[in-house]
């Protein structure tokens, strides 16, 4: 019984998705896969890829990080499981096999060859098929020189069509191949290079075809090696560049040592041998760790670079005599792996000549830094700090100026005005911006624990103390900034210790005997009147003067109404992002917010906006969603804001005020009963007044 395609196919097709990268194909083909089918999201074959297709694509310079669609063969034949192997035609090396329009396997060229051999089809049919499916160019002539077989790859390499070649004498069409000489001389020629007219280079194998000791033709199998030839030329050019690079390395006055990604020595220049007193044999051809063990060098920057994966500079002794400044720099390949480590070595004494220039350079850098910091004062938005008022503009300008120096700042203002934001602004623009920023709320910690928090304690200082002791906020803020919020809540006994710590920059832990030197910039804040507290004996005058070097008083929100709308917009964006909402405020609701006096300042405004985003039911926040305190505040302002003519009669004034008052009230409530209840009148009374003033609910 004749075999079907299903009997000879491979049942587990190798597939990739059309959105996979070429690197995935390379990995599969390296595993020995003969052919790959590219499928789409519907599991439908949309292309095929083989070794030859991949090689040709890479030779064209297609990057390996491209999608497989850039290299796959889109024109291909599919076969069905019930068909016979003879259906596998077309010049391809893998055929997708479908059953009920589903991919169930593949047939490869190797599978077909095995099938042909088993079924005895090895004669002319087999030879012709082998030629057609070969990834090399194949030309077969008969004993008279007529071309009998001319495959697709031959057409592609030579640029001569099959129709023009078949049936013609080879010497007329393709004289370069000299196949008639193989018939005449009965010779086989292997690996001969032919240079064709279009700058194509091929390497070919030519041999006669014998049948019963008689020469009946000749065959030529060839492949295009133009790309390889180009690579070979590039290699020669690379050798030339490497020679030039060697000359450049030798021209350096600094010592240079190069290792591979494992720390294996590859080369050193003569300068290193001269200044360090080592030979090439000490370092080349051995791991740097071995050189350290043998005492050739005291430590290795190469080992540190391989471990840290970054440029490293160390001071190193070589053979125990001289000290050098050594810098190792990693060189990464395209996969992020260290390929080389380049180390430069310079005698430290040579650097002394550069000290003067370095000092001048540092002074210039300092000058540029100060200029940059002055420019930054014009940036009037940082995090939660947004404003439009001139008052806040002056505050920010003062904070930016104060940031450039380590002088103590005292931030004054009501609760919720944003003292912590100004403190963060000063820190962020200061010279200590890359060091720690420690915050301590003096009013949030019990007085009995506050000293331990500020100054720390030693082991066993008191019952419940940690066995290892604990550093205080001053130590944690060393080299950085310490923000003491609510400084007015600090007990008198701690004010003395804090004063000495700020003056001398020396602290003592609880239970400690040795003073600890610290370097801390102090920012303090309070909402209390420290001068009144001084008069009452609640705050030390000397501490006040020590803190009050740069006082910054932040005005309450009611004194800068221009800032309310920008703050509303900021907090609305933040809360929408936080809760994944897209709420907006109606203009009438915004008017209520703008007219409110905000006794809780910015903190209250932020909390109100958050509440509105969370509790409002629709996308638009309306007046009805506002807290009652805001609505009452608006109603109270009706009488305050009413303007009337001094010649008006009392009754007219009263009626006008009553009408406006009722109009504002009715805007906020959906029913007369609800409005009457709030106003403290009967439903019928309110109805009569609505008719009287011709108002609408």
UniProtKB/TrEMBL annotation:
Residue intervals of the CBS domain: 9-64
Single GO term (MF): ATP binding
Domain PAS: 123-167, 241-286
Entry keywords, A to Z: Activator, Aromatic hydrocarbons catabolism, ATP-binding, CBS domain, DNA-binding, Nucleotide-binding, Transcription, Transcription regulation
BP GO terms, sorted: regulation of DNA-templated transcription
Organism domain of life: Bacteria
SUPFAM superfamilies: CBS-domain pair, Homeodomain-like, P-loop containing nucleoside triphosphate hydrolases, PYP-like sensor domain (PAS domain)
Transcription keyword on record: yes
InterPro entries linked to this entry: AAA+_ATPase, AAA_lid_NorR, CBS_dom, CBS_dom_sf, Homeodomain-like_sf, HTH_TyrR, P-loop_NTPase, PAS
Every PAC domain range: 308-360
Name of the protein: HTH-type transcriptional regulatory protein TyrR
């Amino acid at each position: 019984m004749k075999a079907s395609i299903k009997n000879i196919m491979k049942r587990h097709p190798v597939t990739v998705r059309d959105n996979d990268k070429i690197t995935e194909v390379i990995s599969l083909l390296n595993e020995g896969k003969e052919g790959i089918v590219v499928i789409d999201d519907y599991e439908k074959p949309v292309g095929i890829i083989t070794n030859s297709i991949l090689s040709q694509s890479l030779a064209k310079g297609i990057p390996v990080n491209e999608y497989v669609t850039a290299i796959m063969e889109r024109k291909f034949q599919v076969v069905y499981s019930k068909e016979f192997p003879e259906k596998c035609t077309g010049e391809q090396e893998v055929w997708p096999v479908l059953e009920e329009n589903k991919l169930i396997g593949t047939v490869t060229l190797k599978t077909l060859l095995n099938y042909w051999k088993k079924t005895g089809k090895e004669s002319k049919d087999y030879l012709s098929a082998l030629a057609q499916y070969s990834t090399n160019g194949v030309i077969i002539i008969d004993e008279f020189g007529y071309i009998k077989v001319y495959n697709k790859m031959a057409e592609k390499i030579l640029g001569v069509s099959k129709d023009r070649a078949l049936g013609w004498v080879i010497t007329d069409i393709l004289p370069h191949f000299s196949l008639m000489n193989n018939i005449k001389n009965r010779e086989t020629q292997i690996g001969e290079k032919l240079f064709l007219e279009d700058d194509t280079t091929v390497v070919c194998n030519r041999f006669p075809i014998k049948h019963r000791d008689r020469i009946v033709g000749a065959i030529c199998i060839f492949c295009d090696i133009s790309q390889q030839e180009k690579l070979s030329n590039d290699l020669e050019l690379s050798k030339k560049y490497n020679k030039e690079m060697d000359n450049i390395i030798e021209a350096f006055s600094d010592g240079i040592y190069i290792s591979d990604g494992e720390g294996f020595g590859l080369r050193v220049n003569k300068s290193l041998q001269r200044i360090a007193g080592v030979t090439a044999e000490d370092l080349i051809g051995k791991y740097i760790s071995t050189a350290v063990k043998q005492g050739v060098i005291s430590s290795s920057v190469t080992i540190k670079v391989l471990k840290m994966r970054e440029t490293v500079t160390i001071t190193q002794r070589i053979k125990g005599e001289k000290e050098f400044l050594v810098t190792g720099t990693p060189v990464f390949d395209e996969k992020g792996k260290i390929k080389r480590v380049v180390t430069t070595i310079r005698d430290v004494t040579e650097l002394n000549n550069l000290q003067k220039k370095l000092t001048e350079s540092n002074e210039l850098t300092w000058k540029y830094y100060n200029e940059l910091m002055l420019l930054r004062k014009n940036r009037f938005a940082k995090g939660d700090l947004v404003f439009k008022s001139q008052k806040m503009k002056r505050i920010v300008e003062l904070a930016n100026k104060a940031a450039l120096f380590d002088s103590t700042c005292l931030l004054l203002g009501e609760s919720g005005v944003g003292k912590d934001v100004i403190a963060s602004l000063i820190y962020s623009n200061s010279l200590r911006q890359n060091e720690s920023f420690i915050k301590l709320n003096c009013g949030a910690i019990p007085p009995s624990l506050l000293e331990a928090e500020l100054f720390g304690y030693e082991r066993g200082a008191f019952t419940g103390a940690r066995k290892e002791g604990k550093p205080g906020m001053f130590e944690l803020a060393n080299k950085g900034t310490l923000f003491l919020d609510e400084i007015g809540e600090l007990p008198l006994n701690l004010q003395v210790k804090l004063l000495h710590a700020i003056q001398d920059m020396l602290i003592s832990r609880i239970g400690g005997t040795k003073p600890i030197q610290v370097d801390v910039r102090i920012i303090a804040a309070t909402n209390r009147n420290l001068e009144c507290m001084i008069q009452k004996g609640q705050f030390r005058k000397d501490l006040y003067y020590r803190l009050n070097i740069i006082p910054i008083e932040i005005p309450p929100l009611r004194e800068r109404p221009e800032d309310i709308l920008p703050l509303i917009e900021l907090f609305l964006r933040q809360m929408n992002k936080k809760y994944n909402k897209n709420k907006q405020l109606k203009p009438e609701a915004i008017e209520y917010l703008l007219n409110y006096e905000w006794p809780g300042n910015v903190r209250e405004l932020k909390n109100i906006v958050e509440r509105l985003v969370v509790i409002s039911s629709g996308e638009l926040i309306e007046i009805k969603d506002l807290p009652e305190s805001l609505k009452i505040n608006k109603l109270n302002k009706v009488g305050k804001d009413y303007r009337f003519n001094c010649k008006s009669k009392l009754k007219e004034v009263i009626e006008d005020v009553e009408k406006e008052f009722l109009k504002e009230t009715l805007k906020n409530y959906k029913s007369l009963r609800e409005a009457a209840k709030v106003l403290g009148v009967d439903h019928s009374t309110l109805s009569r007044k609505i008719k009287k003033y011709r108002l609408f609910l």
